[in-house]
Amino acid sequence: xxxxxxxxxxxxxxxxxxxxxxxxxxxxxxxxxxxxxxxxxxxxxxxxxxxxxxxxxxxxxxxxxxxxxxxxxxxxxxxxxxxxxxxxxxxxxxxxxxxxxxxxxxxxxxxxxxxxxxxxxxxxxxxxxxxxxxxxxxxxxxxxxxxxxxxxxxxxxxxxxxxxxxxxxxxxxxxxxxxxxxxxxxxxxxxxxxxxxxxxxxxxxxxxxxxxxxxxxxxxxxxxxxxxxxxxxxxxxxx
Length: 239
Known about the structure:
Order of helices and strands: HEEEEEEEEHHHHEHHEE
Number of domains: 2
Number of strands: 11
Strand content: 35-45%
């Protein structure tokens, strides 16, 4: 009986552990309200509008979205208000900063890691708006430069043993992808032709939602492109 109790204590956490995923867009208004859209099974992220992720001190807003749990895979886009000027930013290593329709977009993906993004910004009104969206303060540039240098150094060290294998397969854009994303690329490469999303589901034997999440990540990374065809999508590798 004592042995059974010990085994129960050791294995019970594994039985109830949960795998989290997220495919989300956070649209931040100039009042600090955050509209959440997309899919996730984490209790912190429900579709709708919330004020729980933002705070303001003086002229500066702080956006802090942090989930302490580890996500098997995630992708998110944060859309800051029009006229935003970033003063400070903390995100995972794999982040892309873009500008669209006068608003700053932060796009990040991750595999088997915590979900977080913290940004301090202010909203510039009047004539400065047209130029402010392109401005990132010097401390942010320095921080991003250091993060990029560390990330490139780590990636270089990890990829050295795999150089021969990569040359043998001759398949493009496998670095930095999850196992399922690599599987999708290999299937498209070996088929030598575009496939529908349904055909990929049949070959991979995984749910539609998982295929959709991984295809979106590959599309944002510029590895594949999608073309609408009736009720389905045609998937092909980018040249």
